[in-house]
């Protein structure tokens, strides 16, 4: 499945609210918040010249989010940031005045946080981020997980003291249940997907993701000509594409959204020209991207700044995991989880098809960015699929 963006809004300016959410000032605010995190460090940018040569492009960079804030996923930037923002806003409301990040651990702010419960649904990584943020500020967390979330991922969230709630069905079922229970109990819903009447908090989550784009632009001498980013509900793709469109303006790269073929809600939304819910079929190995209904805010942004949409098979994702663990030439090894390498899988599929390659303008001078959105967040599953334990690959990276 490959589609170019034919939406009437393609290349139109972002809506003012989205431009504010994903703009330069907002990204600077996120980075300021990160300076107050004990384990904050910029994630590495990996250059893969051997693979670039194999693919017939000029340069290939991988922003490696497997090192983000001790959670092994880009999601660490979004959920915890939104939690912190929401606590400071509630503290400002209850205490009067503007309470800023410097007072986050003040006793009076902690007292406000203690009365708050942050709730969300998750495939694994977003829930860890929300739970970590809640623990950091002294709030409670209630995390809803669907039947397909592995016990290992549930345990990883539970380590932050969150209440874990199992829900029958899919991720989308858990989103609805989390919203229902949170509304009933007066909890704060910190979702990474949006729906009618619920947009601001998912916008804050997306805003958190802009930090990695800021880092990347500092780490390269020339901006990319092409960017391939995986979707899920669309949040990360929209955040990256939206911020790049603001930061680089007319020099923005060609942006390609990558979906799992078994959960291609963004591709099908692009085909329909409006948000659609797709049928639940066989689960995809790309568990963090297994979503069947797009975020309304994400689609509003992507309809304007995404240039094309492509779907990849499970076999493509597994092949990328193995290829990054056993690199060519002097390329560095990279630990990519089941969903982490989906953007690269999209690039590989695109360059292999002459028509897609031509449609995207991929050639020997192209500078391509992909994002490894997660490391081995389920080490057992990673080892099953790659045949090497993640720590063994990690040891090769350290050499």
Automatic annotation (TrEMBL):
Its EC number is 4.3.1.15. Keywords: Lyase, Pyridoxal phosphate. PANTHER family: DIAMINOPROPIONATE AMMONIA-LYASE, PTHR42937. It comes from Rhizobium herbae. GO terms for molecular function: diaminopropionate ammonia-lyase activity. The keyword Lyase applies. The keyword Lyase applies. NCBIfam families: diampropi_NH3ly (TIGR01747), PRK08206.1 (NF006058). This is Diaminopropionate ammonia-lyase. Residues 39-373 form the Tryptophan synthase beta chain-like PALP domain. InterPro entries: DiNH2opropionate_NH3_lyase, TrpB-like_PALP, TrpB-like_PALP_sf. It is an enzyme of class 4 (lyase). Its cofactor is pyridoxal 5'-phosphate.
